[in-house]
């Protein structure tokens, strides 16, 4: 019998619908993998095997009655622990929300359950989605299932902030997982672990019920084995939500049905400014390879300019912390979550003690940065200036897209690094986002596709950035790369 | 209006007071500014709180269109500029009654820009007005409420009010006396109640004032101001200004300096005290709320707002004077409260209908009766116009009986008293009590003839020049008719007979 955990979303959906196996069999197989890997990989904060089985039973029952199964019928998934799940602890990997069980379900997770998906558990992440290595989680870092081929056993970063998601998908603990992307938190971990992930256009997926990091940037998206699986899952996640004022009031396209790797008549832009001094030679070579693949798929390749690229990262590290400093003010010990009330404490003491104990160092760093850049006397120099840069970056993309349909770039400047390697150096950690942040600031759809293995045996990703609302163009270019890259590598099981 | 002569007489000379007001008016709406929770006053603590109001993780604000509509209509009522593009900002600070850790407000791009209202200080002379500039109206969320009396060491939080929509109406520093400030608050309240955008219930906190006061030598530059927070009645606003201005004069005259600070008003003592100085002031770190898109208003929306505006108090007062012929004072009294004006207009319509006359023909009678008869009677009963047992319909019937000469003015007073007690119709009472007056000339003439015949001597004296006896003849006739003779007809006949 096939190992059900080797199957992706489309295969499971079709297999369950066609009666090749039951949804319960699938859920049981993944539940077993989750349990077996938990100690080694720490991908989940909470596992919910019963929820996965219950959803699978419901799907099997529907099939028995001859009812239509949903887009995700019978597919068990991992849920990043940034999405509120009714009755199931939702922490954002923080101590301050430890034990918090919402009485509500996020719009995106509800849509997935409505589409027939089941929940295997809540996935670990960087605390409040702030980090690029999963080392800021209060519940311990996730260990990447990948290891270097040097014979050493150095624990590697699965990327962040959706590091639980990336590790779980690449280790076959789930066929797909939700991620959220603020400055690269879907694409960078996908690239680090050899999986596919897409951040749709800002507003495609409702933010309602997702613990907020930076509201103007946060966007949910799928992480899965391949492009088709991402297209299927994104269809299930996306859609207008009147409860989110920034939600796009547009119909959800049929991305899966629209998949085509034929890029004839399409132009692919190569941004000059993304070729940076000191860029990893293997990444540069892979980028060239990507250009060749897309040409092979029929696309015309043009050089484009995104002149304000070098200001994107500084602007991002002003805007995102500014919004975060305000978004995280609600964690104050008054209504829910952690409360630290020392003897004889007044309100201010309670705030100080609660937030000191409840937030990790990286979260505190960003709250401080954000508070600083919004302060009287600094606001114009930092926040206003950063917003201007953001506008210029959007204009850069708008101009570039007059000359091309999609943009090809590396996802990350390097492959995965060892845990601890960058955690003492926030700046070098922030540099990980250098290629992913511009699309976030412009609200554009962007995906990472696994495209190669470096000399250390670690996966590398290529990034496709598209026009606003043109997820289809992004997915199609991703599919063309995927078909030519023939990426089949997976981490050797050591856990 | 002449420039204010209000001065504080200090030991070193006269001081002028400069006042600006920020009024927080709760928007009348069924649900909150960014959530679907109810807004009823006096509900059980925390019974009107949604996940958004409690700032649960991942919750997002969604703007309530009705609150914006009400604020726009208010702006139109003060002839202010309506900004078709505005935006919400976050005002960040920590307090236990502020679940989000920020208040959603509008600092940089408010919904309503410059406008003004006219105030008058003299009831008898409502045309003698002064224009008070309004700088802006912005829309924002209210905070919750802390309860300090529930537990010996803890404070409790009630979030019912958290997220309720407020309009902050910011005046220019155009007022120069406590009386002007009082007139401004009253007039603003009247306008809000006409528009229906705020119920104006100051005792329930639906309208609260932050009072900015400074003093200066007449004609000189503005002095340093203080801001006294949350003053919740017209009288307290005036008291707070008076106290604060005198305090500032004392400080300045004893060689001190005014510190820019926030102060609190103590209603029991009528004094203000320092709350925090500028140095301790919060840095609110305002920035545009990324959860909300900029607010853009289209022409159709603005058109609907304008079309739904009622006749406003000044326009109504002018109409009462010019078209109905009411005195400025009466017109002022009847238009000061929207309920009074509505009641009066129904009364007028009912009276005209019942009497078969044009409204303008019965307007003075209706205005006088409402102001001097019904108000007085309701006052004695300790009740209000809204709860009056005499409805405009019943009042109109009564006034029509007077207008048609069916009953006399004094009989009408009697009828009103019974109506207030029993709620019966005027006609029923008049029938039962036999209060109908006799207007039939023949019948009255017969009585007059009898009276004149019985008092031939007095008729002689009258004709000889003792004209004061006229009243005697009237009295005798009325007595003979048991008070039911129409006095006007009696007078006319007597005059004719004695000529």
Automatic annotation (TrEMBL), chain A:
Coiled-coil ranges (or none): none
Cellular component aspect of the GO annotation: glutamyl-tRNA(Gln) amidotransferase complex
Domain of life per record: Bacteria
Gene Ontology molecular function: ATP binding; glutaminyl-tRNA synthase (glutamine-hydrolyzing) activity; transferase activity
Keyword Iron found: no
Active site: 80 (charge relay system), 161 (charge relay system), 185 (acyl-ester intermediate)
Chemical reaction(s) catalysed: L-glutamyl-tRNA(Gln) + L-glutamine + ATP + H2O = L-glutaminyl-tRNA(Gln) + L-glutamate + ADP + phosphate + H(+)
Matching Pfam families: Amidase (PF01425)
SUPFAM superfamilies: Amidase signature (AS) enzymes (SSF75304)
InterPro entries per record: Amidase, Amidase_CS, Amidase_dom, AS_sf, GatA
Enzyme's top EC category: ligase
Keyword Ribosomal protein attributed: no
Gene Ontology biological process terms in this record: translation
Signal peptide positions on this chain: none
Ranges where the Amidase domain occurs: 25-475
Keywords of the record: ATP-binding, Ligase, Nucleotide-binding, Protein biosynthesis, Transferase
Family indicated by similarity: Belongs to the amidase family. GatA subfamily.
HAMAP family documented for this protein: GatA
Assembly description: Heterotrimer of A, B and C subunits.
The protein, known as: Glutamyl-tRNA(Gln) amidotransferase subunit A
Automatic annotation (TrEMBL), chain B:
Catalytic activity, as annotated: L-glutamyl-tRNA(Gln) + L-glutamine + ATP + H2O = L-glutaminyl-tRNA(Gln) + L-glutamate + ADP + phosphate + H(+); L-aspartyl-tRNA(Asn) + L-glutamine + ATP + H2O = L-asparaginyl-tRNA(Asn) + L-glutamate + ADP + phosphate + 2 H(+)
GO molecular function: asparaginyl-tRNA synthase (glutamine-hydrolyzing) activity; ATP binding; glutaminyl-tRNA synthase (glutamine-hydrolyzing) activity; transferase activity
InterPro entries assigned to the protein according to its UniProt record, in alphabetical order: Asn/Gln-tRNA_amidoTrfase_suB/E (IPR017959), Asn/Gln-tRNA_Trfase_suB/E_cat (IPR006075), Asn/Gln_amidotransferase (IPR018027), Asn/Gln_tRNA_amidoTrase-B-like (IPR003789), GatB (IPR004413), GatB_C_1 (IPR042114), GatB_Yqey_C_2 (IPR023168), Gln-tRNA_amidoTrfase_suB_CS (IPR017958)
Keywords per UniProt: ATP-binding, Ligase, Nucleotide-binding, Protein biosynthesis, Transferase
GO terms classed as biological process: glutaminyl-tRNAGln biosynthesis via transamidation; translation
Signal peptide annotation: none
Record-listed E.C. numbers: 6.3.5.-
Group of enzyme by EC: ligase
SMART domains per UniProt: GatB_Yqey
Coiled coil start-end: none
Transmembrane segments: none
Family: Belongs to the GatB/GatE family. GatB subfamily.
Classification via NCBIfam families: gatB, PRK05477.1-2, PRK05477.1-4, PRK05477.1-5
Oligomer and partners: Heterotrimer of A, B and C subunits.
UniProt-recorded name of the protein: Aspartyl/glutamyl-tRNA(Asn/Gln) amidotransferase subunit B
Record organism: Novosphingobium mathurense
């Amino acid at each position: 019998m096939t190992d059900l955990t080797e199957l992706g979303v489309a295969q499971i959906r079709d297999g369950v619908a066609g009666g090749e196996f039951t949804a319960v069999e699938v859920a049981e197989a993944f539940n077993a993998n989750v349990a077996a890997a938990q100690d080694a990989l720490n991908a989940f904060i909470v596992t919910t095997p019963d929820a996965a089985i219950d959803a699978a039973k419901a799907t099997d029952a529907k099939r028995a009655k001859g009812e239509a199964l949903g887009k995700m019928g019978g597919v068990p998934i991992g849920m990043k622990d940034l999405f509120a799940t009714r009755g199931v602890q939702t922490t954002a990997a923080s101590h301050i929300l430890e034990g918090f069980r919402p009485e509500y379900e996020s719009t995106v997770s509800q849509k997935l359950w409505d589409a027939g998906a089941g929940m295997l558990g809540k996935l670990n992440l960087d605390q409040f989605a702030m980090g690029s290595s999963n080392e800021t989680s209060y519940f311990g870092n996730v260990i990447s299932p990948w290891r270097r081929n040097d014979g050493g056993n150095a624990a590697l970063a699965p990327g962040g902030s959706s590091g639980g998601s990336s590790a779980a998908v690449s280790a076959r603990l789930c066929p797909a997982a939700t991620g959220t992307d603020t400055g690269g938190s879907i694409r960078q971990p996908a690239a680090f672990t050899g999986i596919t992930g897409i951040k749709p256009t800002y507003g495609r997926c409702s933010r309602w019920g997702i613990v907020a990091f930076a509201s103007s940037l946060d966007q949910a998206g799928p992480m899965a084995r391949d492009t088709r699986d991402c297209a299927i899952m994104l269809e299930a996640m996306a859609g207008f939500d009147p409860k989110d004022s920034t939600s796009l009031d547009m119909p959800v396209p049929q991305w899966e049905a629209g998949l085509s790797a034929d890029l004839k008549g399409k132009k692919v832009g190569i941004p000059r400014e993304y070729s940076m001094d000191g860029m990893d030679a293997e990444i540069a070579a892979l980028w060239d390879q990507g250009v060749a693949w897309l040409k092979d798929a029929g696309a015309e390749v043009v050089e484009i300019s995104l002149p304000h690229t070098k200001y994107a990262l500084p602007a991002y590290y002003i805007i995102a912390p500014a919004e975060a400093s305000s978004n995280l003010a609600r964690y104050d010990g008054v209504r829910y979550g952690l409360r630290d009330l020392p003897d004889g404490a007044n309100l201010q003491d309670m705030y100080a003690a609660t937030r000191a104990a409840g937030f990790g160092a990286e979260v505190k760093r960003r709250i401080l940065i954000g508070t600083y850049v919004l302060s009287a006397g600094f606001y114009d120099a930092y926040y206003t200036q950063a917003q201007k840069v953001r506008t210029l970056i959007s204009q850069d993309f708008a101009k570039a897209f007059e000359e091309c349909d999609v943009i090809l770039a590396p996802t990350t400047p390097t492959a995965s690094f060892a845990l601890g390697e960058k955690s003492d150096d926030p700046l070098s950690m922030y540099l990980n986002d250098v290629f992913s942040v511009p699309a976030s600031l412009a609200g554009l759809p962007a995906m990472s596709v696994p495209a190669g293995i470096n000399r250390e045996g670690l996966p590398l990703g290529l990034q496709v950035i598209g026009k606003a609302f043109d997820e289809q163009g992004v997915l199609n270019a991703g599919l063309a790369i995927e078909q030519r890259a023939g990426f089949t590598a997976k981490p050797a099981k050591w856990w | 209006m002449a420039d204010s002569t209000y001065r504080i007489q200090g030991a070193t000379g006269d001081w002028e007071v400069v006042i600006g007001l920020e009024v927080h008016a709760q928007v009348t709406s069924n649900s909150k500014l960014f959530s679907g929770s109810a807004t009823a006053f006096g509900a059980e603590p925390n019974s009107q709180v949604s996940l958004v109001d409690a700032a649960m993780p991942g919750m997002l604000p969604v703007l309530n269109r009705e609150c914006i509509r009400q604020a726009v209509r208010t702006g139109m009522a003060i002839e202010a500029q309506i900004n078709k593009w505005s935006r919400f900002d976050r005002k960040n600070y920590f307090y236990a009654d502020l679940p989000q850790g920020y208040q959603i407000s509008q600092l940089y791009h408010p919904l309503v820009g410059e406008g003004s209202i006219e105030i008058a200080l003299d009831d008898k002379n409502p045309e003698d007005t002064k224009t008070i500039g309004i700088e802006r109206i912005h829309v924002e969320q209210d905070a919750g409420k802390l309860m300090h009396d529930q537990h010996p060491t803890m404070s409790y939080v009630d979030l019912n009010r958290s997220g309720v929509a407020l309009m902050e109406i910011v005046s220019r520093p155009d007022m120069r006396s406590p009386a002007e400030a009082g007139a401004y608050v009253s007039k603003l309240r009247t306008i809000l109640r006409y528009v229906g955008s705020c119920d104006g219930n100051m005792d329930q906190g639906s309208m609260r004032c932050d009072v900015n006061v400074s003093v200066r030598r007449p004609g000189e530059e503005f002095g340093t101001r203080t801001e006294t927070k949350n003053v919740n009645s017209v009288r307290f606003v005036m008291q707070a200004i008076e106290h604060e201005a005198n305090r500032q004069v004392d400080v300045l005259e004893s060689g001190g300096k005014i510190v820019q600070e926030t102060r609190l008003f103590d209603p029991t003592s009528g004094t203000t005290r320092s709350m925090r100085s500028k140095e301790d002031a919060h840095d609110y770190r305002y920035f545009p709320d990324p959860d909300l898109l900029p607010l853009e208003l289209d022409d159709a929306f603005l058109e609907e707002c304008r079309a739904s505006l009622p006749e406003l108090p000044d326009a109504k007062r002018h109409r009462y004077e010019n078209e109905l012929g009411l005195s400025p004072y009466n017109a002022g009294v009847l238009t000061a409260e929207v309920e009074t004006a509505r009641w009066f207009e129904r009364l007028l319509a009912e009276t005209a209908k019942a009497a078969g006359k044009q409204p303008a023909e019965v307007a003075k009678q209706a205005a006088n009766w409402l102001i001097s008869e019904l108000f007085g009677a309701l006052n004695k009963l300790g009740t209000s116009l809204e709860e009056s047992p005499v409805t405009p319909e019943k009042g109109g019937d009564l006034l029509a009986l007077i207008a048609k000469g069916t009953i006399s003015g004094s009989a009408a007073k009697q009828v009103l008293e019974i109506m207030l007690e029993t709620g019966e119709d005027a006609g029923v009472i008049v029938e039962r009590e036999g209060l109908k007056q006799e207007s039939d000339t023949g019948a009255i003439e017969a009585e007059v003839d009898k009276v004149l015949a019985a008092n031939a001597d007095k008729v002689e004296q009258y004709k000889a020049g003792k004209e004061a006896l006229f009243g005697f003849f009237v009295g005798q006739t009325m007595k003979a008719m048991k008070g039911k003779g129409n006095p006007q007809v009696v007078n006319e006949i007597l005059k004719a007979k004695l000529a």
